[in-house]
Amino acid sequence: MATQYTALLRGINVGGNNIIPMAELRDAVADLGARNVATYIQSGNVLFDGGRATGTTWTKRLETGLAERFGYQARVMVRSHEEMRAIVHQAPEGFGDAPDDCKYDVLFLSQTLSAQAALEQLRTRPEVDSVWAGDTVVYFSRVVARASQSYLNKLASMPIYKEITVRNWRTTTTLLRMLNERVA
Fold it and tell me: Which of 9, 107, 133, 154 has the lowest CB atom count within 10 Å?
């Protein structure tokens, strides 16, 4: 049976950099051998049928192929349907439950960065930020009323930034719902 994947591209269509239209992205991923390719919003979320290839294989294939096609240093975090289900279901208790009070993000980590190593490098501000390690992610929440004081705002200046792509909780759960629909 073919595996359903989501590929999370970092650094496209942000701040006027690495502009890639979604139709062109879908075509590029299909040209690399994926089937039934779809995208979700403009920030580089791709869903596809990956056949029998592993997530590691798809990460390498996508990073190489997208870099060649679009001329940028592509960084991609690939997660299977099962991995996305685990990410959502293993979130800390109450994570995402109070969107009026907190902003919730999932920091998807490259294959070379462990959640524990990421936690050691991420700074948090007491009474603003909370972090938890997952298997291949870090869950990060911050108080809405004090979000401007959050250290997540400084992530781009941290050395580990190139090994992370961030999706908010709503996008993360929507991607899982879309993957669920694809296998139903």
Answer: 154
For the structural domain made of 85-168, what CATH number should be given?
3.30.70.1260
Q: Please check the confidence at residue 14 and state whether its pLDDT lies above 70.
A: no
CATH domain 4-84 topology: Alpha-Beta Plaits (3.30.70)
Question: Could you tell me if 134 and 115 are in contact, meaning their C-beta atoms sit under 8 angstroms apart?
Answer: yes
Tens digits of residue pLDDT in 21-49 = 999 999 999 999 999 999 999 888 999 99
The pTM of the full predicted model, rounded to 2 decimals, is: 0.94
Q: How far, in Å, CA of 157 to CA of 144, rounded?
A: 22
Q: CA-CA distance, 62 to 20, in Å (whole number)? A: 14
| 24-33, long-range: CB < 8 A, 24+ apart | 24/70, 25/66, 28/65, 28/66, 28/69, 28/70, 29/62, 31/65, 31/69, 32/61, 32/62, 32/65, 33/61
Q: Where do you find CATH 3.30.70.1280 in the chain?
A: 4-84
